[in-house]
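step 4 of 6: structure.
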Amino acid sequence: MSETISTEAFQVLLDRAGISVKPEHMDEMRSAYMLLQAMRERVRKPRGYDAEPAHIFAPAGR
Amino acid sequence: MTALHDLTIAEAAPLLKAKKLSPVELTASYLSRIEAFDGQLNAYIRVLPEQAMAAARKAEGEIMKGGYKGPLHGVPIGLKDIYNTKGIATTGHSALYKDHVPEEDATTTRLLAEAGTILLGKLSTWEFAIGGTSFDLPWPPAKNPWNLAHDPAGSSSGSGAAIAAGLAMGSMGTDTGGSIRGPAAWCGISGLKPTYGLVSRRGILPLSFSLDHGGPMCWTSEDCALMMEVLAQHDPLDPGSADVAKPDFAGSLQKDVKGLRIGVIRHFFESDAETDPEIKAGIEAALVTFRELGCEVVDVTLSPLSAYGDAATLISRSEAFAFHEETLKATPELYGELARQRIMMGAFVRACDYVNALRERGRLIAEIATVFESVDVLICPTMPGVAPKLGDLGNMMSRSRPSFTRVFNLTGSPALSVCSGFSAAGLPLNMQIVGRPFQDDLVLRVGSAFEKATAFRDLRPAPWVQQALAAE
């Protein structure tokens, strides 16, 4: 995975999402985006059929 | 005699019940103190003196007529300004909601009022509970009572600062990634993130639906337990509310902790996240105390801290953006810079990432449940360091230090922050105590036992008063 995203490529993502970033915050946002990308990569892992999304958990003793 | 603002709820309640302490006198004392000092601390966004005094007179009349309701009757509190209050602006500390006046109370607001509490006012927060310590909002950020140059943490910044400074006897915070426990840690108080579903979220401005928790912040864990007696109610209007038997908070506090098995998540603070030596020393000293109290202490191993942080961050950013997308696009200028940037990141989390994060969440919940088969509570730090200078917090995301608190938003576990001592600079150290789902009473019992076995509750942040006066 690339460790950076160009300003132009990031601008495409911003345009697609319909949001804007002030020029002075662009570098910070690009940097944060790459951190998010790394998180996305890490949660992608082989899982079995039974690895369902969790929204609730059973109370203790039940 | 203890000053009124130094009384805990547990100390004040019997005096109020016995008519030896007047709710009117108590409330007037707090309002006077807020007027004198909050101009320096910024804990409150909105103070409600007339309403508070009216409620205090009502409480006094009820008690005098033999209508004492319980330990919160006549107790002055504050609410983080994301709790809806009928007829009173609930702003989220944001220009966007500056004129937002709810037509209904949040369920928790109502429960606390019915218990006879006195609402002193609405407390500062990070904007919409996410924005960080910001200086571009309609109200200034709260400061840390232990040193006004330092940060109180957030997002329940005013809730933590007000308790530590003696500007409220109890307060309500909310916690999506650590927003009760962080300010509790840096302000040196006790703050409980209850089990998900135990306290209603109805009427609280949402940040991340599946990670948001409301909970109490007080000087002691015992006081948090007294508030939880009122707050822990099934709410059919909150779809996440659990219909379970209320833990026996008062009864649990009467028991000791002898024989409990404490699991220390040592790798969290020894290798997973850089942690200040003073914080680590505070934890080790606390473990000595627990052994002296008859607990067995063992090390336990979980997945790396980052595994929890990744899943929690992807979920929270997605859910926050889902809630804010429309207004963020339509009126970005009404958000502060930090909130806008942080919420915006949710736009880059794809649906499959969100679902995979939820699948990972399921695995991690199961992992914690397995660990809890062999221990009663878990311990690790709340925060990896003491309060930094105001404005020195990271900007976009926590880059260098994964969060110790977010773990338990992901798992829904009850998690309590208590003061574990003081740094050489006089700032509070911290410790987090975590329990099985719906064993919030046990978590508070362990916290209270620690507080009673140590002298850290005897020290109040008096120096800030001198700082405030010097700045006048």
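step 5 of 6: annotate
 - Chain B touches chain A through 45 residues (CB under 8 Å).
 - The longest strand of chain B covers residues 415-422.
step 6 of 6: archive
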